[in-house]
Amino acid sequence: MAWIYLLIAIAFEIVFALGANASKGFTRLWISLITLVGIVGGIYFISLALRTLDVSVGYTIWTSVGALGTVVLGAVIFKEKITPAKLLCFAAIIGGVVGLKSMGAA
């Protein structure tokens, strides 16, 4: 169940990050409210996941996969560029997450 909580926390993290950009400094009411729900939901679900997962694993995966999702969706929604350097960094993040999971770190 911890991994499901972690996936939900990641989704909320992505909503928070994208919403923070779209809220234009919290000047757009509805997007600002969605952003706040994103951060509260993310913290709530990561706290549930960390009941079982080591904080070093759960938090690292939460922030790194959340960052990956934010970059990909930022490119789709906000037309941000994904450069070769960004792709290399994505690969490093994914490698680290796979490494943590495959080494039985959780």
TrEMBL record:
Record-annotated membrane-spanning stretches: 29-50, 57-78, 84-100
UniProt KW keywords: Cell membrane, Membrane, Transmembrane, Transmembrane helix, Transport
Superkingdom, taxonomy of origin: Bacteria
UniProt-listed Pfam families: Multi_Drug_Res (PF00893)
Location within or outside the cell: Cell membrane
Annotated GO CC locations: plasma membrane
Record's keyword annotation contains Transmembrane: yes
Topology class, membrane: Multi-pass membrane protein
Presence of the UniProt keyword Membrane in the record: yes
Molecular function terms, GO-annotated: transmembrane transporter activity
Primary location class: membrane
Record family assignment: Belongs to the drug/metabolite transporter (DMT) superfamily. Small multidrug resistance (SMR) (TC 2.A.7.1) family.
Annotated protein name in UniProt: Multidrug efflux SMR transporter
